[in-house]
């Protein structure tokens, strides 16, 4: 090894976390493994094959580039979903590759319509609705418009999912807001189903929501942070474990070659900008 410092990924920790999540979420809830932001810094190319080996068969990313990286890291075909950015010119390629993607406004739906018609391949879409986070998503009026576009163009779209994002489930202070979001979501879902469009997966929960509000699990959950061994907040951790041992384990580790060992007396400072005060006689590396 050339460098003096390196990052490690612990396969056993990853297996432990995925097995814990599967056990707790049950057989009826599909897990979409969120590997956006380069798998939360762990490395898409390193992490995705390990998740695949643990039986994960759905992956969520933020943009087109990440989706391609996930696809290239997989041994076998698995479902990949883009929750965010695709530049207009990449929509055709996204559909050709069979990658699922969010429809969060009418413009995006029209671009998908044009692209799918052009190449004669169905666009696998997830309709994202606005329920209170105010980031992206279709309002009720836009949803109605989307429904009419989808129905006027049979054979163009495969409605894979109907989703929203529950904001702030990691804090009890958002309880009322979350309940309101859930209500709005179910109302919008009825609008969709009354039109005769039945989405394959209803999904709204991230890690915190899946554990704090089991009712939010629906057909699929989008689990990010917990896979990597972290709870969404101290609150979600305590609420689940009741101060018992943490069932999750950190995947990421950091190892370094030791260059020099020193004894430091109590009351002395260590480091640049005297950043550490020794509270006892210690040995530093
Ligand atoms: C990041 C993200 C998730 C995963 O969130 P975690 O809190 O890490 O589980 C789920 N859904 C969407 C839309 C996200 O952006």
Describe this structure in words.
- The protein has 285 residues and is an alpha/beta fold.
- It has a single domain (7-253), classed as TIM Barrel.
- Helix content is 38%, strand content 21%.
- It contains 10 helices and 14 strands.
- The strands form 4 sheets. Strands 2-3-4-5-6-7-8-9 form an 8-stranded parallel β-barrel. The protein has a two-stranded antiparallel sheet with strand order 1-10.
- Helix 9 (207-212) links the parallel strand 8 and strand 9.
- The longest helix is centred in the middle third of the chain and has 20 residues, at 175-194.
- The radius of gyration is 23 Å and the shape is globular.
- The model has no long low-confidence stretch (mean pLDDT 96).
- Pyridoxal-5'-phosphate binds at residues 34, 36, 83, 165, 206-208, 222-225, 232.
Count of separate structural domains: 1
- Strand share of the residues? 15-25%
Count of separate DSSP helical elements = 10
Give the strand order, joined by hyphens, for the main sheet.
Answer: 2-3-4-5-6-7-8-9
CATH superfamily: Alanine racemase
Helix-and-strand structural type: alpha/beta
Which spans have pLDDT < 50 for at least 5 consecutive residues? none
Bound ions, cofactors and other small molecules, one mention each: pyridoxal-5'-phosphate
Query: What is the CATH class?
Result: Alpha Beta
Q: For the terminal residues, how far apart are their CA atoms?
A: 20 Å
